[in-house]
Amino acid sequence: MPASKRRNLQRQRTGPVVAILAAAGLALLVLPLLGLLFRAPWGQIPALVTSDVVLQALGLSLLTATISTLLCLVFGIPLAVLLSHSVRWHVIPRRLLRAAITIPLVLPPVIGGIALLLLLGRRGLIGQFLYGIGVTIPFTTGAVVIAQTFVAMPFLVFAVEGALRSADRRSELAASSLGASPAQVFRLVTLPLIGPGIAAGAVLCFTRALGEFGATITFAGSLPGVTRTLPIASYLAMNSDPDTAIALALVLLVVSLAVLLALRDRWLPGALS
Amino acid sequence: MKRFLPVAAMVALLAGCSTPTATPTESITPDALTGTVTVLAAASLTGSLDDVVTAFEALHPNVKVTISYGGSSALAAQIVAGSPADVFFSANDSTMKTVTDAGLTVAPTVVLENVLEIAVPAGNPGKVTGLSDFANSDLTIALCDPAVPCGSAAAKLFTLVGITPSVDTLEEDVKAALTKVSLGEVDAALVYVTDVKVAGDKVEGIEIPEAQQVINEYPISLLTDSANPDAAQAFIDYLRSAAGVKVFVDAGFEAP
Fold it and tell me: Could you read off the pLDDT of A248-264 as tens digits, one per residue?
């Protein structure tokens, strides 16, 4: 950032009303987490976070969230490209496409889980044919990945679409006029341009997948080591063993924060900061 | 009208002030009960408890009973955490004990019993005949999580008969397990006799002789933090009356 521009920003002062409301908003976001830290049984935390329940749930969550993020990248980047191209479409298909991608963001995840069950369950629209050839999806780790991909994909698509919009398209046009094929343009010009957007989207996607609860418990069920991810284990433990629930919550919080903080500066210059 | 309302309110206030000793408890008629009663109830009571509430509200038109159903252990945790409720109706002793240990119950009493049964989807696609099929890893099996009463009873039952079930999902309450059966997503689940009855023709039940040895007892209790203890106690009394118990017995529960 040029020095003159930075000085201009410093001169912008925060008015008292904005400051008070912002502080209240921030308090709502941060205080519950402080409550968690305050209530945590710190003496038992080392033993709790290394217990089988926590390690098993953590391992499953990291594995499924990683696969889900990869799937989101594979399908989400082309979807973002399609979405950015849709500005030239007729208004109705354009809005339908955007609405379809937004739905998992605004739908309660439990409803997403019900919808997935009715599509891919043994008696579902597609699931019945899969069952016919011996494939059952619900209650498997694969179902967890599908549920997480369903809820996390929009985060990636919108992050990448934003990057595509703000990218300078003249380089693409230049590459194209110099004889590069569409695939070459995408690989050699577009991808590097939107790299920060992809990284930002992937981080959001991963943390969203890590925290996925509703769609997972509805569609994939809950079995330790197979489908019982960190949030589900924490929710169930809250009913019988609050200390373990808090330990699970802390682990989830630490992993999410670590991913958000570590990746921001290293790979996301300006994209999330 | 505008001027009349404050006057009416004052009259009512004065009337209330002037007769503090004129309303001893024995003269309270059923209609003297007002306000709301919040009941936290085990998921397996869904349906029959609603019928009891309808009958109770017909007797006491000024009382509104609200029920929140859930897994008993989740409800117990909510009460201990300070959830405002008047009555807790749980599906086993240990979840009620959680609340009693926190000093929040007033004389919990067992009012109903329920027995486990095998639930299979209509047509029994997995050709399930008994508990031994639960060890078959080719079948998709749902049980309740051991943290909730139906799951702890199921765990006791499997220990009793010496079978290790090959479970595909441990559901958070009995209704969630039943739903997986009625959708046909699992081949069998262990639920209560009453759940199979409620589910109608989407679900078939298979009786388990050994289940008589792991009967679930349903205690009910007034909660110490109740904001409306008179109406709450009246609801509990009605539920325990012959008319109240009959609703549950018709639904498949047993009276101890």
Answer: 999 999 998 888 887 76
pTM over 0.90: no
Cβ pair B168:A123 closer than 8 A:
no
Residue A139 lies in a domain: yes
Residue A102 lies in a domain: yes
CA B152 vs CA A113, B46, B143, B155, B256: distances in Å: 26, 20, 10, 5, 20
CA-to-CA distance for B150 and B154, rounded, in angstroms? 6
A202 part of a folded domain:
yes
Q: How far apart are CA A129 and CA A133, in angstroms?
A: 7
Within a domain: A68 = no
Counted domains in chain A: 1
- What CATH number is attached to the domain comprising A96? 1.10.3720.10
Render A207-226 in DSSP notation, one character per residue. HHHHH--HHHHHHT---TTT
3-class SS at B85?
coil
The rounded distance, in Å, linking the Cα atoms of B143 and B163 is: 14
- Contact state of B183 with A121 under an 8 Å Cβ cutoff: yes
| pLDDT for the residue numbered A166 | 83
ipTM of the predicted assembly exceeds 0.95: no
Instruction: Using CA atoms of B62, B65, B66, B67 in order, give the dihedral in degrees to the nearest 10.
Output: -170
- Could A223 and B74 be called an inter-chain contact, meaning their C-beta atoms sit closer than 8 Å? no
Give me the domain span that covers residue A205.
87-267
Chain B closest-CA separation from residue A70 CA (Å): 26
